[in-house]
Amino acid sequence: MTKKKYPDNIVYNYETEKFDANTKAYPTSVGASKFEPIKVDKSDSLKANNYFASRLSELKAEYVKLVEEYNWTSLVYESEYSFQPLLGELYYLYEREDKSLFLSLIEPKQWNQSYVGTFKLLNNGKWELVEK
């Protein structure tokens, strides 16, 4: 027995021997709505790239600032001082002729020393550069 051959415009599944036009994920008749492939919008990838680029530059700037804060804090802690610094008070860092550093309570305008900067001790133990 030969299988009946249906015209091309009729959707018939020869394996299941059923008409299955209603189960297809795409239009199967001439009167069906227009079928177009989905256009993929890749502008989101540009947004993501812009976000990551800006975030990276923010992190780089934050890193540079952190390294600078660390260097100033290390410089002050490595300097010579003979008093207990108080939180929030201003202290002045000077350089001697032999290039050694010392921390003082005396302001730069009150004497003639090689002034490096004004610092304030914060509650987290970090020295903040107030004036250079």
What descriptive keywords fit this protein?
single chain; 132 residues; alpha+beta; two-stranded antiparallel ribbon; 1 helix; 27% helix
Structural description of this entry:
By secondary structure, the protein is of the alpha+beta class. The chain has a domain at 43-131. It has one helix and six strands. The chain has a four-stranded antiparallel β-sheet, covered by helices on one side. The protein is rod-shaped.
Produce a short descriptive summary.
The protein is an alpha+beta fold.
Q: Indicate the proportion of strand residues.
A: 15-25%
Tell me, rounded to a whole number, the average pLDDT. 88
Helical percent range?
Answer: 25-40%
- Structural class label: alpha+beta
First CA to last CA: what distance?
101 Å
Largest sheet: 4 strands, antiparallel
Note poorly predicted spans: none
Beta-strand segment tally: 6
Elements, N to C (H/E)? EEHEEEE
- Helix count equals 1
CA gyration radius, whole angstroms: 38 Å
- Net shape: rod-shaped
Instruction: Give the strand order of the largest sheet, numbering strands 1, 2, ... along the chain.
Output: 4-3-5-6
Fold blueprint:
Layout: E1 12-13, E2 18-19, H1 43-78, E3 90-95, E4 101-104, E5 114-121, E6 127-131
Antiparallel strand pairs: 1-2, 3-4, 3-5, 5-6
